[in-house]
Amino acid sequence: MLFGRRWLLIILALAFAWTVTRLGTNIVNLSETADPWSTTSRFFTAAFSPSFTDENTTLPVGVTPFLERVGHDLLRTFRYALIAMSMAIPIGLIFGLLASELALPTNRLRPLFNIFRWSIRMLLSLVRAIHELIWALLFLAAVGDSPITACLALGLPAAAILGKVYSELIDEQNRSAQQIIRSSGGSATQSFLGGILPAALPDMVSYTLYRFECSLRASAVLGFIGIETIGLGISRSFENLYYGEVWTQLYILIALVVLVEAIGNLIRKRLRDGRPRTSQPDQITETQLRKTRPKNSLVRSLGLAGFVAIIAAWNLGDVLLKPAVFESQRSDRLSRFFAHLTPDPVAPKNPVPTWDERTAAWEAGSDQLLPWVTDLWNDPGQEALANTIAMSLAAIILAGSAAIILIPWGARTLASTKPLGLAMHGGKIRTLIGAAVRSLFILTRAVPEYLYAFLLIGILGPSAWPLVLALALHNLGILGRLWGEVIENSPPSEPRQILTLGGSRFQTFLGALVPMSLNRFLLFFFYRWESCVREATVLGMLGVSSLGYYISLRQAFLQYDQILFFALLGAAAVIAGDILSDVLRKKLRS
Does residue 38 lie in a domain region? Predict the structure, then answer.
């Protein structure tokens, strides 16, 4: 086991060295910037004087006030994220169970079900590998500008991500309770529902709440392509150098993220710790035990409030399913879109083709399809994919290295007056440090990568490293939260023994909590690396030679067939990472 972990560190170090070789060492390119430090100074100075009115003094009389516009944008951002999650959670749960190894039957059909399981995992990888912005571009082209376009663009990858993470959280649970139920005569279904699913539930709920936080940020980011969310306001203010407006909208977005974070922590704590039984049953029977079981009214109330909010989100505001184009034009628009999506050699010439025209075009151009793919792969696909992978690897390794150093200072079970329930010296100072570290995690992940990237490109000049640092900053906050919650959800008995014997918090972290949590650390590490591949693809639209750069070029000419080709290259990298994650975690687990 130790040998495997050492090799893992060596492989990560070699991977980072390759990224430096690939991306170069020229991090700062001041020759391409115009007084970057002045811009940076103005931007951060504006943080202390956010605007509450429009900075543009030339707006016509009667225009909607700035704060009112921001409020409408924020509500729309929240609504889109909530509707997307209401679609993603049930779909993710179903596909998560189908993709789970522990949910497989143990009879002779297991090999057949295992093939089906991997087919589901590949489907989930394919869907989540395509970024929300690319989904939004495709849906905008296919059905037009409608609220459901934003919701589908957010919901599809969210459902695939939930399915993947749910399945892996289930597979990482201890098998002992399941084995006890089976040995007592329980069926495979009973042992799974009674021995595995309850143990995985706190982590699943925790991740679902985090995913909602991600959907909020992704909903905001849709504003960068013109969808009316708070991201559109941030983008416009930033481009017009109205930095006070930018900070006002950022503060509001961060406040919303902090609120979701606080509610999530409260729910996780109640699910993890439970509530004591306030009354004892008169008889030890199932009926009496049910009557006297502790009831968590807070979690139930929050769950009911969430359900009511979802119903309101679907029914209030703009008509969600209202078509963006007339009924008579919708089929033509879809037909044109799929014609553009068909590879050029086999695409029909008629923009609204019949089935016979599609078949004839395929037969006529099928021999040119492979050369078309080969040409795109040779130039520029191969180089763009390598740059995208290098950017994502560099970002996740930097973020993971920083997070693993900060986690023991930020996890609530260690950074408190009574770590793991034991009184120790220096508790008050560690509590303050822990609050500061968790605040850093919140702030770094609350700001979209795109804004980081815009600012860093303005400071460092156009190169791949500003995008890498933008991804690393954002993912530091995400890994800090996810890994911190893994530590907080871990059973305290083993690490408590080290503290009892005189060990420090850091020794407890390295000696007990890291070995106990390593596989779940890797689960989230590889998941975030997959996300970095998606994000690096999109950030390439800022002008760096990655997949996103060529996607943006093709989008301008409506070459959706080539957009699909570059998106599938990114998906192939995500699928490869998914397979590597599954194999590596199995090796370490065994």
Answer: no
